[in-house]
Amino acid sequence: MGIRERLSGNEAAATAMKQINPDVVAAFPITPSTEIPQYFSTFVANGTVDTEFVAVESEHSAMSACVGAEAAGARAMTATSANGLSFMWEMIYIASSLRLPIVMSLVNRAVSGPLNIHCDHSDAMGVRDSGWIMLFSETNQEAYDNLIMAHRIAENKDVLLPLMVCQDGFITSHSIENIELIEDDKVKEFVGTYKPEHYLLNDKEPISIGPMDVQAYLFEHKHEQAEAMRNTKKVILEVAKDFEKMTGRKYELFEKYKTEDADIVVVCMNSTAGTSKVVVDKLREQGIKAGLLKVRVFRPFPVDEIAEALGNAKAIAVLDKADSLNGAGGALFTDVTSAMYVNKKQVPTVSYIYGIGGRDTTEKEIDSVYADLQEIVKDGRVENPYRYLGLKEEK
Amino acid sequence: MNDMIEIRWHGRGGQGAKTASLLLADAAFNTGKYIQGFPEYGPERMGAPITAYNRISNTPIRIHSNIYDPDYVVVVDDTLLGVVDVTAGLKPDGAIVINTTKDIDYLRKVLKGYTGGIYTIDARKVSMETLGKYFPNTPMLAAIVKVANIMEEDDFLKDMEGSFKHKFAKKPEVIDGNMQALKVALKEVKKLA
Amino acid sequence: MSIGGNIYKAGNAREFKTGDWRSICPKYIPEKCKQCGLCFPVCPEDAIPVNKEVKREDFNFDYCKGCGICAKVCPFGAIVMEEEGEE
């Protein structure tokens, strides 16, 4: 029946890691994810886990150590944020192209500069094309649950891709909230042991990993990665089904919150979805057909499924907590509109860049987005699709 | 929605307002509630004004934003009264709880235009008498529990004893003082208006 | 607002007034002060002005955070810490 607890998002992530008890954790502290390796190293020191904790000197080394460990045949995990992830960038690609199912807890924060330590999704968006599976989490509970499901997804032989679980820096990482934990033995059984088919420390099969890959092969290897990413959707849903059997908590590629008959729909990720649900409920009380689509699986992007879910809406707003700085909206907006176009769904859609650098996003602001959508439905046209939410007038 | 209590804490870095908000979340959690406890991160330096928040509810809390229209405000340090707009958005039927020895006329003057309830407690005195040191957060925690009627006093004290035993596992000598601080504070908090 | 938040002026820390961080306040007692010069170098905020005659003057409360280091370092009891708050 689960264990009723109250934990911050970081505590939740560290607790998941404790229960998973990976072979190796290599991490370097960076705000706001610092507490994760901090708590975890306490578990190591207390003997609660038998993980080899590698206190590296940088994030580049953290990911390198994870790559080495995973290639050797170990289950490796790490945690980071923002500039830490930026510093890992080279190794992020090595991890995915060597098909090493490393699991990372990414606590989202703005990538400097100017210097800012608060939440936005620019760190995650920077690696959206790197071949990592990316799961987003509204709450501490989802960050925890996603981590418990992570290895089963990443290590599946049809997948073999690294996976990151994102949650909002400070907003959920540093907020104490209710959570239902799963018993240690159940997690252990659910996650299972890591049995790689090929690994460096197997003396019966000497292998080489990451050799030179010239014009004749890289293209095909990249295509294989893309295929693996396509396979991932199915695996994510299978794992979610088993998870639901264990916990009663249902996970899909995205959450449809009152979208079935909705005329106006907001699409967003992470903690803002919670605030949006509150607004949707209030609008529904007034008879306004509002809905929310919360993207959980951002990579692979559920193109057809999202187009299907949004096809009957009359106006859509996509909220991006990172600007692509391409002058044409955020990354989620681009993906959603592309999904709709390819599936021949023609719905007026606007992009809102919001919450950059930890700017608080209020109920009132989300409400204003739904009000804008009602205007669009009434007029039947979109004046300016590239909008900002909560931006101050210039002084 | 109406069953949710929203509390905003104003303190200075180092006074434990953040810790108090987390302890309050803990105490309410232990009575079966849904809770949120989170600080607003700014320049975290000794003495700098800081804000922390609590939401307490009978149903799951989904909103993730700061609190702009609190039901209650706790001011851990009365020198903030002239510096920070502590009553901003405070609901008219809510109340403010202040650590101060000042009288109602002074408080009405500095809380320009605020007409709602005012509770005070001399947390310095309580803390010095029970702990021998100035930790205003413990008495303020008891004060807000009483003013906002968050839980039964006995349940609160029993629960906090458990928390302190856990928190101060390495220095059990301070547990009695902290418990005493809570008990005295529950009695000392006064309604001025 | 400037491009990239760049600051085109030197000595801009002056505009960041940290006086409202203060919960205890130093009081300068000139009669006890020997002008020994121990207090002003230890002030983290440079909130103890020194005049042309190299003599310290009263505190600059726009910046004094009330940390109390000056009171601790003063051998003559010429700085005492008092509770902050307007009377």
Features:
heterotrimer; B: 193 residues; alpha/beta; 6 helices; C: little secondary structure; 2 helices
Descriptive account of the structure:
The complex is a heterotrimer of chains A (395), B (193) and C (87). With 395 residues, chain A is an alpha/beta fold. Chain A has twelve helices and 15 strands. Chain A folds into two domains: 3-247, 3-Layer(aba) Sandwich (Rossmann fold), CATH 3.40.50; 254-389, 3-Layer(aba) Sandwich (Rossmann fold). Helix content of chain A is 41%, strand content 19%. A seven-stranded mixed β-sheet of chain A has the order 3-2-4-5-7-6-12, sandwiched between helices. Chain A has a six-stranded mixed β-sheet with strand order 9-11-10-13-14-15, sandwiched between helices. In chain A, helix 12 links the parallel strand 14 and strand 15 (386-389). Chain B has 193 residues and is an alpha/beta fold. Helices cover 36% and strands 21% of the residues of chain B. Chain B has a seven-stranded mixed β-sheet with strand order 2-3-1-4-5-6-7. The longest helix of chain B has 15 residues, at 153-167. The mean pLDDT of chain B is 92. Chain C has a single domain, classed as Alpha-Beta Plaits. Chain C has 87 residues and is low in regular secondary structure. Chain C is 10% helix and 11% strand. The radius of gyration of chain C is 15 Å and the shape is globular. The chains are: A alpha/beta (395), B alpha/beta (193), C little secondary structure (87). Chain A binds chain B through residues 6, 117-118, 168, 170-172, 174-178, 271-272, 274-275, 277-278, 360-363, and chain B through 1, 22, 25-26, 29, 34-39, 41, 60-66, 68.
